[in-house]
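REQUEST ID: PR-0412
SUBMITTED BY: lab tech R.K.
PRIORITY: routine
TASK: structure prediction, single protein chain
INPUT:
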Amino acid sequence: MNTATTTRRLTDDTAELLTAPALPADDRAGDGYDWIAALEGTAWSVLPNWASEGWDAGSWPYIIFAVARSRDVSGELFGYGTYVEGDTSTHWFRSQDACFEAITAEVFFHWASGQSDGPDSLPATAAELPDQDRKPYPGWTISGLLRGFRTAELVDSSTLPRLAVDNHSGLRWAGGNRARSDGAGCCKTPRCSE
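STATUS: complete
OUTPUT:
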């Protein structure tokens, strides 16, 4: 994996040059689950669900979203990154609302194309989604997964609990431990049948 800790780039919403936490790049030696493991100890946390009902944000291990929050001399920064079949991309925003809109648009694309499980009745565009479906799933903010997005103060990301849930198989990771949750694995892939 790419081990750079910071990167210089432009914010997507204000086109400001910034230095922000780097999203680990895939080294092609594993799969999306290995990329999730590479996020451990970085500023990035996996974003498994989105919107009011916690619909899938991505389709693990092929499409994975991650979020981060940082600060520079000009103020707060909100980032999201994606892993799509080994390709990674990073987006940083000065505004949390702009970041949420961008995540919504990308998650919507995966829902509309059938790559991720989303609402049964989708509008024609992401912009037409109701407000409650244009922000993080409230259940994850309670668990602390998105604490970096929700708190007024910046939190040292090394102190946050790391929790990732594979909704496809019912596996849960907390730190380096893996255990089956209430879900009973939904398919015959090796990951589900472990």
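NOTES: The chain has one domain: 6-160.
REVIEWED BY: pending
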